[in-house]
Amino acid sequence: MLYTAPTIAVNRSFLPLADHKSRILILEAMPGEKSKILLQYYASKGNNFWKILFNAFGEPLHSDYKLKKQMLLRNGVALWNVLEHEEITYERPNDFQTFFQMYPTITKIIFNGISAAECYGGNVGYRSGITYTTLPSTSSLNTWKSFEEKAAIWIEELRKNR
Questions:
Q1: Residue pLDDT, tens place only, 89-120
Q2: Is residue 20 within 8 Å of residue 101, measured between CB atoms?
């Protein structure tokens, strides 16, 4: 009988969604399971990210992923993951040095939840010239604030930067 060594599942991040007009970078630690399956940021129906962002920018909510991405870029918002990949005992951050060279217009990072902020702080470190803000996770699993409270906080923060 042939022996096959067990494999360790590796979580991989997405490529950044950004362009030369991006001013705000929203970070999550890693994509969720549904996002990895569909290859889309914030694909879980239980995550209110898209609902909140469309509301913040006064645009009608769309389910088409292409339109979602266009809305973010049109409003100067980029998305990415803190980690390039993670295993059970190892985390490797994405290459933020190259990212900031490619997108020098980023002046603000918003962490989507405390875990993203802690992950960034522990793996990447903070840069001068960038403002950092941690907002409540848009996940419905985050129950310490209601949807309305989270939406109000996100909308206020995003509208500051228009």
A1: 678 899 999 999 999 999 999 999 999 999 99
A2: no
